[in-house]
Amino acid sequence: MSRRVVVLLLVLLSPLQLLAAEVANLYTARVDASVKLQSGLSQGFDQVLVRVSGQRAALSNALVMAQRQSVKQYLVQYGYIDDGGKRWLEVTFNQEAVDRLLRQANLPIWGSLRPMTIVWLAAEQDFERELVNEQSPLLENANLRDVLRQRGIPMMQPLLDLDDIMLVDAADIWGNFPGPAIEASSRYSADQMVMAKLYEIGGDEYQIQWSFYQLSNKQPTGIHKAWYQNQLNGSLDTLLPEWLEQMADTLGQQFATQTGLSATDSVQVKIYNLTDLARVLKAEQSLASMAMVSQVALQDFSANQAVFSVNLLGAAADFYQALALDKQLQALEPAFAESEPMNDGEDDDSEPSEPEMPAYMWQM
């Protein structure tokens, strides 16, 4: 296992490279230019369907399988580019048409706002365990760059500088003690954390075990429960790429939203710190760009705050979960209207106060 691949992983996952959780070019794919054009278009279409749905299983959907025979009706443009010393066929598909197909197939849609995931990986080699850094052994020819690009998954690896190693040891990862890694992760712009350990189980077979944790300041002190755990066996040539694929599937299942062909729900959202119409427009555009939003209308704008009516193609709960990933919006604690004071000695038969509409602070 070579140093070259370790450096590749660091380039892919470095927090200096991936600070934002907004993924660009979801509907554009790259495939090896050596394949025939029709085959390349089909491969590119498959990439986009998996990336936007968040699930490899989308390709086995009956309606999707039928439409894969008519790729050109979804095509916007294609061309050949040179990048990284390799020639690629780059294909762009129509977003509206792809989204419509996924909705017709009753498949979820995962928008461009995606959780940033920080990965703490410990590896065992020659009976020594260490956190992944520039000297750590990883597999060769793993195609990690291709997996992350094809799936549209924002991931980073900790710098493992003095600040990190003062808090986190390989034993913490190996023993599945998430507290130190969660504390160390607070300096990074991450929404999710993965702890994983990689080791040889015999012959050419290796095993990797991993756990997902939600990074949130609202967790009770000392309580850190994984929301997903799994393990995978295989040879080093295939293990890590499949691990990344499975993590992408898991994130897609958690964060992609089920949408319909027409609006099924409507909510109101209040946004503060909109000091001028330019910010109001940006906030409206931010809401309208979400995959499950069909229409946004400004209802009120006064005193640096605006109220928007948002028509949804899915459930309101999924909308709020996706909105939590928008770094431009900081959710405010729910406020309740003040009740009229009770008269001493008299029963109060009035209805309890209703919570105000969800409110956010604009961060730009």
TrEMBL record:
Origin superkingdom: Bacteria
Q: Where is the composition biased (Acidic residues)?
A: 341-354
Q: Which Pfam families match?
A: DUF2066 (PF09839)
Q: Signal sequence: where?
A: 1-20
Q: Does the keyword Signal apply?
A: yes
Ordered alphabetically, the record's keywords are: Signal
Q: Which InterPro entries match?
A: DUF2066
Region (Disordered) residue ranges read: 337-364
Protein name (Swiss-Prot/TrEMBL): DUF2066 domain-containing protein
Q: Which organism is it from?
A: Neiella holothuriorum
